[in-house]
């Protein structure tokens, strides 16, 4: 059992992690992670832009 670092409930097999300089915190849900970040004034780093590759393939869901 991994306890949530905010509410102490079990995080289950796939906790919502937050990497800190000295350790990784574990949360049972995205809500607990977000509340912890808000209370402690922690800003998430911006997400890396996704690169789109043009492979020349046609999307089968899109009609011509």
Features:
single chain, alpha+beta, 12% strand, extended
Structure description:
- The protein has 1 helix and 2 strands, in the order E-E-H.
- The chain has a domain at 1-44: Ribosomal Protein L24e, Chain: T.
- Strand 1 and strand 2 form a beta hairpin.
- The model has no long low-confidence stretch (mean pLDDT 82).
- It has one helix spanning 30-39; strands at 16-19, 24-27.
Care to give the gist of this entry?
The protein has 64 residues and is an alpha+beta fold. It has one helix at 30-39; strands at 16-19, 24-27.
Number of helices: 1
CATH architecture assignment of the domain at 1-44:
Roll
Q: What is the number of beta strands?
A: 2
Structural class: alpha+beta
Largest sheet: number of strands, sense, barrel closure:
2 strands, antiparallel
Strand arrangement, major sheet: 1-2
Please give the structural blueprint:
Blueprint: E1 16-19, E2 24-27, H1 30-39
Antiparallel strand pairs: 1-2
């Amino acid at each position: 059992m991994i306890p949530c670092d905010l509410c102490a409930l079990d995080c289950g097999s796939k906790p919502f992690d937050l990497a800190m300089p000295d350790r990784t915190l574990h949360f049972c849900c995205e809500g607990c992670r977000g509340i912890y970040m808000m209370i402690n004034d922690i800003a998430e780093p911006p997400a890396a832009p996704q690169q789109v590759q043009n492979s020349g393939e046609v999307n089968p869901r899109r009609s011509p």
